[in-house]
Amino acid sequence: MSEMLLQLYVVADNVLSKRAIDNIRDICDQSLKGRVRLEIIDVVKEPDRAEHAKILATPTLIRRLPPPLRRIVGDLSDRGMVEAVLASPADPLQE
Amino acid sequence: MTNHKYTELDSLGVVPTGIAGFDQIAHGGIPQNRTTLIGGTAGSGKTLFALQFLANGVEKYGENGVLVTFEEDPEDLVRNVQNLDWHLDEHIDDGRIAVVDVSPVPGEAAISAGKYDLSALISRIEHAVRKTDAKRAILDSVGALFPQVIDSQVVRHELHRLVVALRAMGVTSLITVERADEDGPVARYNVEEFVADNVMLLRNRQESERRRRTVEIVKIRGADHLTGEFPFTIDLKEGLTLSPLATITLSHEAGEVRISSGIGELDKMCHGGPFQDSIILVSGATGTGKTLMASQFMKAGIAAGERTLLLAFEESEAQLVRNAAAWGIDYRGAQEQGHFRIVAEYPENRSLIDHLVRIKQIIEEFKPTRVAVDSLSALERVSNGRSFREFVLGITSHLKSVGAAGMFTNTTDKLMGGESITETHISTITDSIIILRYVEVRGEMRRGITVLKMRGSYHDNEIREYVIGSEGMHIREPFRNVTGILSGSGARTLIDDRAALGELFPDE
User: Fold this and answer.
1) Is the Cβ pair A73, B110 closer than 8 Å?
2) CA-CA distance, B395 to B373, in Å (whole number)?
3) Would you say residue B156 has pLDDT above 50?
4) Hey, of B73, B111, B127, B145, which one would you mutate to test binding to chain A, going by the most A CBs within 10 A of its CB?
5) Cβ neighbour number for residue A80 with a 10 Å cutoff
6) Which residue of B has its CA nearest to A42?
7) Separation in Å, CA of A88 to nearest CA in chain B
8) B114 and A23: CB-CB below 8 Å?
């Protein structure tokens, strides 16, 4: 199975962002078992990347790979939802 | 956090939008360092208003700006206005305008898994402001955020945070928001409670089978502005244009220079002719010679080498040329010499406010010193009372501001006497009123002319007979022993004036 690329857009010093970082690290360690590359991007430090990715809310988690692209907003405390979206190849809302 | 700072900023005043007419009704513009909300239904022109504010910032005031789009793709937004003289695409390329694209990506709807805020959006906007050193920002349209973000409580809270951030950066901003209908609440989703001390509404109403666009300033905190709805038009060249009708003061310089009306006897009745900067209303029933009078007015302008403009709404250019030739007036030759122009158009071709904007453009371009409008009453057909008065006020004030003389003709409904609606609407606006009437004298239909009013000048009070001959209008002696001409019920009196006066002042 191919590697998963995740990007988490956050704002440093933001409670929700910190919580999202903790949550996605847990999910990566426990559910995805190292088959994932996680990149954390601070939108204040890298606004051009936020612009390019059209990030509106923080935190936002984007699954770059494998396609299709997925966006999840929130502190990722709803782990069941996060895992379902990351695992699904198709859009769960369309099913 | 920095309340004292805001108080300082409050005293800084207003930022001009550069939108023709709007800054006058807003007494200078929109509040500096503040956010102003524009509410409007779909198609009311709010996006255009905001873009114009942004583009004018660069074009007219050297102020850079940030365009935040929540709804439309930025490329579409720019393409929609590329025919206007705003150069939006160039300013974006030059880095004078930064775009923050928050338009939804099809098929990439975000799924919510926990709490979030819009810090990313605020960071992006702050970055764009810093990057361009922006003084202006527009957010179009925030209503589109709500379906994107799902939690409307979050949106309202974050919009408020954004407004505070913009203020702290010294940015003057416009936020557009959709309204469900023209008379409902200011904005959907109760946005205005959170973002705006300053609210204005754009409307696009159906009225007399025409669209009537208006702008209304609902509130501007701590500042003075004109109240009520002001008509505006959307022009393919300039964008939004307001006719600041209610702000017009008729205190233009009153010159002492008199010109010829084209009829020698009428000039005598006017104590030497109408003033160069005056507007004359010629009112009469059909066939009394109003168009002829306008033609002679034009002829006098042409003969004096003035730049002369005829705005015709009843006859085609070919008809006008032919009819004038019959009176010995060479319109065609004057046109070829370049100082005379005919603009003939059907009144129904456009709305009254669009007519006004076009007429102003023609006047700006052609720079006439003498203008005839034949006829006002044809234009009245396509209007309602209020917009018609605004139109006449608008054109009168524009002619005065460029120092041109004007003659407007007006057809009355009744053959004999009578006062038309037009007259009651506009008689106080024009400087002079000339009345043409049919008079029945001893079973014969004759015509009478009188100068009812002439501002700032002595004028003849008599009702004189006139005839239309092969060389135009000739005014003769006053009617004697006939009363009731103006009311249309001309009757011979058996006693002469002296006897009548004698009865009024009987010897003791």
Assistant:
1) yes
2) 10
3) yes
4) B111
5) 8
6) B120
7) 13
8) yes
> What is the b/e burial string over B262-274, where b = at least 16 CB atoms within 10 angstroms of the residue's CB?
bbebbbebbeebb
Q: How far apart are CA B26 and CA B48, in angstroms?
A: 18
Please tell me which residue, B422 or B58, carries the higher pLDDT value.
B58
Alpha-carbon distances, residue B282 vs B41, B199, B261, B447 (angstroms): 42, 43, 12, 14
pLDDT at B13 > cutoff 70? yes
Lowest mean pLDDT among A8-22, B225-239, B369-383, B400-414: B225-239
Q: Cβ of B114 and A9 within 8 Å? A: no
pLDDT in tens, A16-75: 999 999 999 999 988 887 688 999 999 999 999 999 999 999 999 999 988 888 999 999
Q: Do B120 and A91 make contact, defined as CB atoms within 8 angstroms? A: no
Torsions phi, psi for B492 (to 5 deg): -70, 135
Q: Where residue B110 falls among pLDDT bands split at 50, 70, 90?
A: confident
What is the reported pLDDT for B484? 67
Average pLDDT over residues B433-438: 88
Q: CA of B342, closest CA in chain A: separation in Å? A: 54
Q: How confident is residue B172, by pLDDT bands cut at 50, 70 and 90? A: very high
DSSP B105: P
Q: Which residue has the higher pLDDT, B351 or B53?
A: B53
Q: Using the structure block, give the residue that is written with the tokens 């605004």.
A: B390
Q: What is the mean pLDDT of chain B?
A: 83
- Is A58–B118 a contact, with Cβ atoms under 8 angstroms apart? yes
CA distance B98 to B113: 31
Domain chopping of chain A, boundaries:
4-89
- Residue B274: which of B109, B460, B129 has the closest Cα? B460
Q: Which residues of A touch B105 (CB under 8 A)?
A: 54
Q: Write down the H helix ranges in B367-457.
A: 376-380, 385-401, 421-426
Task: Mention every residue, 6+ apart, whose C-beta is less than 8 A from residue B147.
Answer: none
What is the rounded distance in angstroms from the CA atom of residue B397 to the CA atom of residue B252?
A: 8
**Across the interface, which of A50, A69, A72 has its CB nearest the CB of B113?**
A72
**Does the ipTM exceed 0.95?**
no
More confident residue, B270 or B93: B93
d(Cα B376, Cα B371) in Å, to the nearest integer? 13
Q: Residues near A95 by Cβ (< 8 Å), separated by ≥ 6? A: none
CATH architecture of residue range(s) A4-89: 3-Layer(aba) Sandwich (3.40)
Please count the residue pairs, one from chain A and one from chain B, whose beta carbons lie less than 8 angstroms apart: 110
Q: How far is B51 from chain A (nearest CA, A)?
A: 21
Coil, strand or helix: which one is B446? strand
Q: Give dist(CA B149, CA B3) in Å, integer.
A: 30
Whether the ω angle into residue B141 lies within 30 degrees of 0, i.e. cis, is yes
What band does B8 get if pLDDT is binned at 50, 70 and 90? very low
**Alpha-carbon radius of gyration of chain B:** 29
